[in-house]
Amino acid sequence: MLDQIRATPGRYAVVGVPCFIKAVHLLRAQDELFRTRIAFTLGLFCGHMKSARLVESFAWQTDTAIDAVARAEYRLKGPERPANWYTAQLTLKDGEVRQKDWFYLADGDWGAGFFQNSACNWCDDVLAETADISFGDAWVEPYSSDWRGTNVAVVRSPLMLKLIDAGIAQGRLELKPVDADYIADTQAAGLRQRREGLAYRLAWHKRGLRPRKRVSPSTDLPFPRKLIYRLRYGISAWSHRLFWLSRCVKQPQLYLGWARASLQLYQGLSYGRGRPGVLARKLGLTKRND
Ligand code: SF4
After folding, report:
1. Residue 47 neighbours by CB under 8 Å, 6+ apart
2. Out of 203, 211, 241, 272, which residue is the most buried by the measure of CB atoms under 10 Å away?
3. For residue 120, which atom of ligand 1 is closest to its CA?
């Protein structure tokens, strides 16, 4: 897209996750052409970035050859399911459609970290803080259950605010003001991972890069939380390796079996779900009973 912007004169609005928007600002600071052509930045709240292996894994689990896939939908919308009930859909090149709820997928829990980009372990920007305006999902009730999905928006530029106010006045936008705490509440899990989780990763991860962030390294958090952060980190790292190996030896079950077991452990610790959850409750590692 940047090549296109360079080649074609005009005024552009760039949409991206927080790190993309920050990169665009750095580029604008260095390059006059991008400074004048990129007029607006629109950010998307970000949980983390996953690799294309996620779709390959969906393909394995829906008996689909990855070469036959034309399009992937990660969170299908429909009146029969709430917004937080994720359904994956693959549209094949011949028009056939295959679906599976994330609930039944071996790696079907976004927050468990499967296929996460390792840079996301060191990221502290959930809300695209450098964008003129940013948008995210309202992960609080009653909005989580509304199948249409609901956005929260953070406006940082006066011009954007004027446009938004005009949209509301004309009835083209249905928005009402909320405070910063409300927005933080909608992103509680992401902020936990990128505040206390990041502080913990900075403290225990001694090898490789240890970037300076707005949170200081700290191990001052309860043992069960430490376990969850370690497990998520391990799932992220090993999902890439095991998927690669499974693909090399043409044995999807190798990855899928590992993913299923890892997810059970993660959900047992995080939500008290299943047999691992019973054990975690007995050991005092979780109080939740999902
Ligand atoms: S979590 Fe951070 S580093 Fe990862 S994709 Fe999102 S903004 Fe970029």
Report:
1. 110, 111, 126, 189, 190
2. 272
3. 4
